[in-house]
Each structure stands twice: as structure tokens, then as C-alpha cells.
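Table S2 (text version). Query chain:
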Amino acid sequence: MRRISSQLNNMDTQANLRLQESRLNKVNNQISSQQKIQQLRDDPIAAGHLVRYESYLNRVKTFEKNAQTLSDNFALREGYMSDSLDIMQRIRELAVEGANGIYNQDDLKNMAGEVDELLKQLIQNANAISADGNSLFAGTNTKTTAFDIDMGNVAGSAVPLIQNVRYRGNIDVNNVEIDEHKYLINDNAGNKTFWAENQQLFGARDASQWQANEDCSISIDGVEIQISRGDNVYALISKINNSAAAVKASIDPVRNALNLSTTDARQLWIQDVNGTALEDLGIIKDKSQFPPYNYQDGVHVAGGSMFDAVIAFRNALLSGDQEAVGGRVLGSLDQGINALTTRLAKSGSEYERAQQNVMRSSKQIVDVTQLVSREGDIDYTKAITDLKMLDYTNQATLSQAGKMYSSTLLNYMR
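Corresponding C-alpha cell output:
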């Protein structure tokens, strides 16, 4: 029930004017901000949808950026790998020519000069860096040079030449999210890309009587393997062979030592995580030494990198050893070419997948943007019509109020 008083008309008029001004201000704010929802209470359901859509839109944009960055890295790495493959093909041509027996010692030395320059270019490709200064083939250790070189005197050469190439990166990978809980693996370890042969390690100690004294763990090619107290070498071999590591273990039938061999062309990366199992087995030195060059003295290592194959080829040319060129060297070069071709195909596949994710994310951005627009953007036609109607109503109210309260001070001066 409303109380009738002399102030009723004035109060109703003022209240309606404030209400109209509030509505007018709301529409003005909507037009200026282009947002339909100014406060959560304007449309709670639409506001909830809008928050989720905008959050998902930001994530999709991040996924697109991640996939595009990976795609650029894959393309850049693929260029250096393709150039390295061309270099290896040229080196193989020289190996075939050098093994046919028609060239004399001086001709072979001249070939060695070209091989040495090709070796330098191959190392240059392996140590390539991206536009942001990151090493392309050093794993996640991107701020270091992937490969170091050791210079020394070589028989047949009057100047120091490259004698050894050592990997300085790591084998860690980056998991880059390209969709909700979906990842692309960025694996750019140079000791896989530029490796020629399956590597084999032949232990230096009889392991037949070995037994784990405590629970411990080892890491092989980045895969951690748990060893229980009381496990013998045969239990360890079973765990290694059943693990996800691309390595096979066995017992040497003559020396009873532990042997390890990779299943593809790569450098073996092993270390003790907890305990001293591999150290006790005579495989690696103590924990102060880090992989991949932490093998114990007496461990025989077979299977080298493409650099090793090219260095062996150059040295064979300098010494005039045509038999080595046509046998062991040519075989190592062929394995290096095959391994690099496989890595190149893998890189191309990863590039295509990254590109597919870029295109999918781009389409999702458009679709989600439409959802955000549907829930949050104003209808300009409706908003302007409402603004004009509210303005017209406000002007009419002000005009009517002016007529109701037309008395002035002069009315009381008669």
C-alpha cells in the first residue's frame, strides 16, 4: 500500500528519471565497450559460458603458437640435416672412387683434402644455431655448442687436423603441448642425428657373481630402471630388455661381462641414479663422471658417429689404405647415410604433424571466437534502437516533469 502525500508525484518522477538514466547509461556502456555483459548479474548463464570460452580461446592460441614454433624449428633443422645428407653422399662418392685402386698416393692425399673440408662443413651443420641463438642439435642444453673437436697430428698431414669430435649436449626432450593434454616431442639430440652405427659396450669385469646389495636405480638412454636388493646380473638384463630403452643387454659368453647394445644408431647414455650398480659391474666410473664419456677403463666401445666414419676415411686416404676405404670405411659411411635418412624422414613427419596442428588450431580460434562473440558481443542494431528509445523516453519524462512543476519564484511575487 502506498501512502498518498504531496511529495508522491515528485518522488515518483525522480525515481523514474533515475531508473531511465541507469538504463541509458547501461546501453551507452555496452556500446562503448562492445560487450553485452557489464556485470555478472546481467546474464549469469551467458557470463559462465563466456568465461569458459575466453579461457579456452587463450589456450588454443597458445597451442597454435607452440605448434608454429615447433614447425619452424623442425623446418630449420631439416634444412641442416638435408645439407648434411648431401655432404655424406659426396663423401661416399669419394670413398667409392678411392677404393677402386686406380689412384696413386698423391691422388688419395688430394682427395683427403676435400674430405677434410667436407668434415668441417658437417661439424658446422651439427653445431648450427637458430635465430634466437639456441643450438639446434644439443638436446635441451641449447646454450652450448653441440659438438667439440680435438685437433692433433695425423700421419700423412703436415698440419694439425680434426682427430675427434665429442658430443656436449644431452638427450633430454621437451614435451610441447599442442592440444588439451596432447604433446609433441621435440627431440634434437645430436648424438642420435649424427650417429652412424649402433653402439656396443663390452664390460670389463666378470659379472656372473654380481648381486645388488640394496635397492637402487640406473638410467639407460633416459629411461630409469629400478633394481631390487638381491637382483643378479640376469635379473638386471631382463629388466633392461623389458624396459622402454632402445638398448639390449646380454652376457658375454667368454668373459661373463655385461654387454650393452643400442637397437638403432645412437650413442649410449648410461649412469647410476641411485646406488653404484653400473660402477660395480665395471661399466662406468663413479658418479663424478657424467655421460656419455663416463665408461670405465677397459670397457670396449664399438660403433661411432658419422664424424668418426669421415675421420677414418680421411686418415685412410692419407695413409693410402685403399683396402680400409673399400671395406670398413665404406660400410660405416653407408650406415651413417641410412641413419641420417631415417632421422630426416622422422623430422619431416614431425614437421607435417606440427603443421596439421597449426591449421587445426587456427580453425578452432575462429570457431571459439564466434562462440565468444555470440555470448558476449552486443547486437549493434538492437543496442542503438534501445538507446534511441530510452533517450526519447527520458526526454519525454523531463518534458512532462517540467510542465508539472512550472511554478517559479515570480508566482509568489504578485
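Notes on Table S2: The first helix runs from residue 8 to 33. The first strand starts at residue 147 and ends at 152.
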